[in-house]
Amino acid sequence: MKEVPPIKKSKEAQPKKALTMCQFENESMKTKVIFALMAREVEEFKEQDKEYPTNVRKILDDFSDLWPVELPNQLPSMRDIQHAIDLIPGASLPNLPAYKMNPTKHDELKRQVDELLTKGFIRESLSPYRVPALLTPKDGSWQMCVDSHAINKITIKYRFPITRLDDMLDMMIGSVIFSKINLRSRIIKYVLDQGMNGRHLSKLRMDCMSGFVVSSKGVETNLEKIKAIVDWLVPTNIHEVQSFHGMATFYRRFIRNFSSIMAPITECMKLGLFIWTKAADKAFEEIKSKMVNLPILHLLGFEKVFEVACDASHVGIGAVLN
């Protein structure tokens, strides 16, 4: 038997995918809602066309001068403080050969180096030491990186003391507008013309300082940090007790008689044994309840007379400046 060929549908039987002008007008008269698909030329995507949340977009607009679309083809003017890498005296200077790469990567690396030379960001050097550059993939393109492991091994590691938080808070007494430039003006010199003095004050934003919110009223807690303590579940082991104790102790200055209230919880951590008592549970809930309505602490006024108030008991000892 011969195979019967498949039946071919006529063009009239196939559904129409296009409407004439008259058919479109008739259809629009019958229906209330019409969805029209229109084609347009797609322009090249730009970074500034990306959609951001409203609060993020506002910050980007306010500080748009900090990240231009293209960097200027020159370095900034010379400053009083110049960056320098101090090496260990007598250390062997590295002089490493370039990494092996294929012709495509070599041409790309040369292109990026020539571009940096043209812009003045780098310059030819006859330095006695050398470290290789390489290309790494990033966002569909190649990014030039410098392997500085050899330099890091012979670099002097400087150690700087960390400023105590209490001392930093004392520096803010009587201040209304806070700026890092004000706090560090004795260390860093900024190249500003006379018309720019104080202009940075209009760029400031309220921010938290190590878990505290500092304003002209005083020092208060960060609500986001406090929420973690308020929502803390009852500890089930000694590690959870230690975590809660450390978090709550950070805000001890805001709670009157904190050591006495926390004493039952402190007892649970002694000898490395976890014993959760009724007194500890009561203190746990009391600490959490006091965290909800913490006072605003006024910054000290050193022009006034201080009084030392001391107190002690079987579970705690302390002193306060009034």
User: How many separate helices?
Assistant: 10
Beta strand %: 5-15%
- Which strand order does the major sheet show? 3-4-5
Radius of gyration: 34 Å
Order of helices and strands: HHHEEHHHEEEHHHHEE
Reported by name, the CATH topology of one domain is HIV Type 1 Reverse Transcriptase, Chain A, domain 1
The span between the termini is 112 Å
Structure commentary:
The model is unreliable at about 180-205 (pLDDT under 50). The protein is α+β, with helices and mostly antiparallel strands and about 325 residues long. The chain has a domain at about 85-160: HIV Type 1 Reverse Transcriptase, subunit A, domain 1 (HIV Type 1 Reverse Transcriptase, Chain A, domain 1), CATH 3.10.10. The N and C termini lie far apart (about 110 Å). Helix 9 (about 260-265) packs antiparallel against helix 10 (about 280-290). Strand 1 and strand 2 (about 140-145) form a beta hairpin. The chain contains ten helices and seven strands. The strands form three sheets. A three-stranded antiparallel β-sheet has the order 3-4-5. A two-stranded antiparallel sheet has the order 1-2.
